[in-house]
Amino acid sequence: MQQSTRLLRCIRTLLALRFNHYNSTFTMSAKYAFSKSLREVRFLFCQTSEQSAAVRSFLTRSYPTMKRNNPNIPILIREAAGTQPKVFTRYDRGVEKSQILEGLSDKEIEETVTGLVKSDQ
């Protein structure tokens, strides 16, 4: 009897640990989950200009996480000399939104992009 009680306690502990791990993984993934209607994210910027430095920093830091959590959504990066930093999002039925990123900090760019990718249009 005592052995079965110990076994039950052990199983409960393992299930609780598993559930907590699942919840923390889900929360982390949900933070970077894109809207279901989003079809594409496109970044345009200059590879050398100072105006695009924050965009380059943001993409270096955030691209791997965004792509890992949204593997089926194309995240396009377009570099061209002298281009104003901008982000475009394309949704169902060809609806597009864009936002100029010039003059924004890394954190402000993250907030702007998050607003666009979580939007339903």
TrEMBL record:
<dbReference type="InterPro" id="IPR007741">
    <property type="entry name" value="Ribosomal_mL43/mS25/NADH_DH"/>
</dbReference>
<comment type="function">
    <text>Accessory subunit of the mitochondrial membrane respiratory chain NADH dehydrogenase (Complex I), that is believed not to be involved in catalysis. Complex I functions in the transfer of electrons from NADH to the respiratory chain. The immediate electron acceptor for the enzyme is believed to be ubiquinone.</text>
</comment>
<keyword id="KW-0249">Electron transport</keyword>
<comment type="similarity">
    <text>Belongs to the complex I NDUFA2 subunit family.</text>
</comment>
<dbReference type="InterPro" id="IPR016464">
    <property type="entry name" value="NADH_Ub_cplx-1_asu_su-2"/>
</dbReference>
<keyword id="KW-0813">Transport</keyword>
<keyword id="KW-0472">Membrane</keyword>
<keyword id="KW-0496">Mitochondrion</keyword>
<dbReference type="InterPro" id="IPR036249">
    <property type="entry name" value="Thioredoxin-like_sf"/>
</dbReference>
<dbReference type="GO" id="GO:0005743">
    <property type="term" value="C:mitochondrial inner membrane"/>
</dbReference>
<feature type="domain" description="Ribosomal protein/NADH dehydrogenase">
    <location>
        <begin position="47"/>
        <end position="120"/>
    </location>
</feature>
<keyword id="KW-0999">Mitochondrion inner membrane</keyword>
<keyword id="KW-0679">Respiratory chain</keyword>
<protein>
    <recommendedName>
        <fullName>Ribosomal protein/NADH dehydrogenase domain-containing protein</fullName>
    </recommendedName>
</protein>
<dbReference type="Pfam" id="PF05047">
    <property type="entry name" value="L51_S25_CI-B8"/>
</dbReference>
